[in-house]
Amino acid sequence: MRRTGLLLSSALVAVIGLCGTAAAQERAVIIKGFGAKSGVVRSFGINSEAAMRAAADAINSQGGVKLGDGTIGKIDVEFLDDRCTAEEGISVVRRIAAGPALVAIGPGCSNVAEPLFGVLQRKAGDASDSGLQFPIFTDVAIKGGLAKISEWAFRNVPSEIDMYNALFTWLKTKNPELKTIFAGVEENFAHSRASWYAVMKEAAPKVGLEVKGEAKWLLEDTNFAQQVREIKAASPDILAIAAHPFTTCGVLKEMRRQGVKVKLLVGLTSSSSMETLQGCAREAEGIVIPTSFAPVTKEAEAAAAQAAKFNGSLDLHSAAAYENIFILKKVIEEQGVLAKPDTVQADREKIRKGLAALKETDGLLGKSKRTEDREAVKPYMYVHAKDGKWAVLFNPLTN
Amino acid sequence: MGFVDYVQAIIDGLLFGTTYSLIGIGFTLVFGVMHKINMSYAAASLAGAYCGLIGPQMLGLPPWSVFPLSIVAAGVIGYVIYLTCFRFIPLASPLATLMSTVGMLLLVDEIVVHATAGMPQNYPAIYDGDPIELGPFILRADLVGVFLICVVAMAVLLALLYRTRLGMATRAVAQQPVAAQLCGMRLQAVNGLTFVVAGLLGGVAGAMIGASVGMLSPLIAGTITVKGLIVTVIGGLGSIPGAIVAGLLVGAAENLFQAVRNVTERDIYVMLLLFAFLVLRPGGLFAAARGRD
Amino acid sequence: MDFYYSLAQIIGFHALLGLSAYVVLLTGQVSLAQAGFFAIGAYVAAMFTVLAGWHLVPAMLAAGLAAAAMACIVGFPALRVRGLMLVIATLAFGEAVRLFFFNFDYQVAKGEVKVGPLGGEGFRQIRWFPEHGWTGLDVMLFVWTVVALVAGALWWLDRSRFGAVLRAVGEDELAAQSVGLNLTAVKVTAMTIGGFIAGLGGAIYAHYTTHIEHSNFGVLLATFAIAYPILGGLRNVLGTIVAVIFVQGFLVEGLRFLGDWRNLLFGALIVLAMNLRPNGLIDAATARRLARLFGREARRA
């Protein structure tokens, strides 16, 4: 009984402790990050958190944010783990919304973003809709067209349609001998599916590439003998792999075993991270991936060094987290956000309006456009795996 | 898809099924001795394989060192699991050990995630040369090697169980724990040793899974656990040869369904077939004679 | 406050999931199919509210009935297997249900957008609560009314003759059979009741998250379903609810202040709990003490 008592009382203490954690400090501008720091996607959370902290640190050390009444605000970032599950993601955001935070940056997983955006009010100011009224500015979750679910949802993720359209056009002009394309798709992952069926499969025929079909597997599959045989039978010039690093590597390794070669490999934008090189640097050699980040500008290099200080690495996902903090700083200053305890809801509304009004934002690689449905059109470039590192293959910005 | 393709699909599946067999043997061994299921077994085996990577990645040892290191590490983890999930929980609460090992599965997986940030890790193959060609068919040479290792592991295990004093004690405890104790056998010591042996075997399994997939990721722990359990029950609880045959069968069946239908429907048929099999043949392929419940 | 209402909702539908496994566990069957029934409830209820425009309550009842019907059908063949074999057989069935939804497309044009389940992409915009202006408090009260009704019904059932029958089958099938109990009827009934409760839970879950996809209903969820009654103890329904609060309120949300340690402690604390209380957080002795605490004479143990 004593043990039960102890267990129950410690549970109670913890539950009560939930409320008192973040008492408002004077003129701190509280921005919360959230994403997965457990499970297979842990590296995403670590990198996003590091990027946000690095950006906040950079802003605070350069004089902070100018608030609506002239006082200086300091950005205070905290990152919460949502384990990449819908329930926890919603719970985390409701917790954040119940506190003094003005806006949240996240989540990492599209399968969290989609339900989460559904919980938000669909049309801002619609009194008949009791959805949550809290601005979310997504950095990582990339599945196409999610922000249109709610007017409180904003994203700063690359538009895959633009990137792959441009990549295929460039590849075709550069290597006119490439004629056919075949794909490998991770069927049970919504983002990977969309990247092939809705993006690449549409983009390829426009530049005259013949689509020869696709081989399919699942996210956690380990045996790719059959799929690689299908690739071999199709013998395409280009193989597009719309899959995450684990199965991308699995397929590439099986291709090497079976001695299947293609002229060019194209990868999923999310795979242009350290994960792929960690898993199969040798087999991934030469794979071309369009990405919205590489340390090619002075700002980008500095930001990457900053993030490294906070034990994370900047990649296409976490770079967006870094940019988001700076975009939010600008919005806060333009909209005259007060960041006072009694103006929290008004400040959130101001941030929502400010984000919605943006036509263009500054990023680490250059300017991004904002679209009507609250998405970004970000600058991008093509990288390829070379000697176990990602190297820039072509940068449309400088050429 | 022609006949040759289907046969090839079955061959691929059979070969890859050996990794399922290895995990199945470990599940079945613990079940045979303690009549309990260790849900964390597959995750712990993979954790052993992860530990093996410390050799080449951190200590600068040659790539082959992962294999012995994995096996030893998994043996140690096996004993830790015995201590934390079985030793102090009364025998009469089978549900409690089911749950404690589920907790352990989650813990082991999360430790691996923390150590690697969830990123896939490259794992050396046992043989990296060309595949074997048999007429129109191709066999993955490394998987043939894994199959041989699987058979050797089974032979060693059976020899251990039927030719040594430890084996005799283990079987005695499995059959009549009270009588075994009356004869002066130390129940806890025998049970603990069983976990170490199962753990060592798990290390072999984990290393072979890593070697045949070419990578380790926390993603596979769940799949391998489910596959291992399926193999264990199809083979018949406690039957080691049964686990081997069942592993091959499961591997072949899923590849055949994938070839005939497609990958998104593949597992539906595997699961329905399994359900039907269990209902029609509740004892599994090689059911051991029913002792106590 | 909204956060606590939301947390209470999570605890609510997990409690229903746990209670569905509790009923089945009373008869000694460990079923990993509960996540499958939960999924059926989620999809059926969401299709009725989103596609057919029903009110949530009838949609929930339909969801419960659909899941119950499926549970009843599965109950018959599943009777033939026991112990670990049953665990795997039900796991296979639950996975088959999940994979069915992975391959299930049924979309209807509504205005300019198409709504409905779309295989691997999931089923989005299940927004009955916000569209009808329900606040967090309203939803929480609704969820807990359902939980209270179900828990109350099970409490009463536990004390009735039928409850004794369930437990008799769970304790010793052979003895139960030899005193003339119809094992088939008892087990299938328990399975059906469990299916109904899981269906209700799934219906609430779908409307809580507003978006469902097959991967939400995997083996992990099925494991949690049986974890709640095992962690809580089979003494009475309170055990299951306490276990849900322990897992969702304490391990998941309560330990959040520990940051990175939280996800490590999750598994470790489950192991510890089972070592300290192998018969559940609320075992026979605790139940007696609780009864005394409420001033009632301790019942026969």
From TrEMBL, chain A:
One GO term of the biological process aspect: amino acid transport
Highest taxon above the source species: Bacteria
Record bears the keyword DNA-binding: no
InterPro entries associated with the record: BCAA_transport, Leu-bd, Peripla_BP_I
Keywords, alphabetical: Amino-acid transport, Signal, Transport
Record's keyword annotation contains Transport: yes
Signal sequence range: 1-24
Domain annotation Leucine-binding protein: ranges: 36-388
Pfam families (alphabetical): Peripla_BP_6
PANTHER family xref list: LEUCINE-SPECIFIC-BINDING PROTEIN, PERIPLASMIC BINDING PROTEIN OF ABC TRANSPORTER FOR NATURAL AMINO ACIDS
Family label: Belongs to the leucine-binding protein family.
UniProt-recorded name of the protein: Amino acid ABC transporter substrate-binding protein
Species for this entry: Vineibacter terrae
Taxonomic lineage from the root: Bacteria, Pseudomonadati, Pseudomonadota, Alphaproteobacteria, Hyphomicrobiales
From TrEMBL, chain B:
Keywords, sorted A to Z: Amino-acid transport, Cell membrane, Membrane, Transmembrane, Transmembrane helix, Transport
Subcellular localization, as worded in the UniProt entry: Cell membrane
Subcellular location, principal: membrane
Signal peptide: none
Gene Ontology terms: biological process: amino acid transport
UniProt cross-references to CDD domains, sorted A to Z: TM_PBP1_LivH_like (cd06582)
Matching Pfam families: BPD_transp_2
Membrane topology: Multi-pass membrane protein
GO CC terms of this entry: plasma membrane
GO molecular function, one term: transmembrane transporter activity
InterPro entries reported for this sequence: ABC_transp_permease, BCAA_transport_permease
Family designation: Belongs to the binding-protein-dependent transport system permease family. LivHM subfamily.
The protein, known as: Branched-chain amino acid ABC transporter permease
Organism: Vineibacter terrae
From TrEMBL, chain C:
Subcellular location, record wording: Cell membrane
UniProt cross-references to InterPro entries, sorted A to Z: ABC_transp_permease (IPR001851), LivM-like (IPR043428)
A molecular-function term among this protein's GO annotations: branched-chain amino acid transmembrane transporter activity
Record field: transmembrane: 6-25, 32-54, 60-79, 86-104, 139-157, 188-208
Record's GO cellular component terms: plasma membrane
Pfam families: BPD_transp_2 (PF02653)
Membrane topology: Multi-pass membrane protein
Lineage: superkingdom: Bacteria
Keywords: Cell membrane, Membrane, Transmembrane, Transmembrane helix
Protein name: Branched-chain amino acid ABC transporter permease
Organism field: Vineibacter terrae
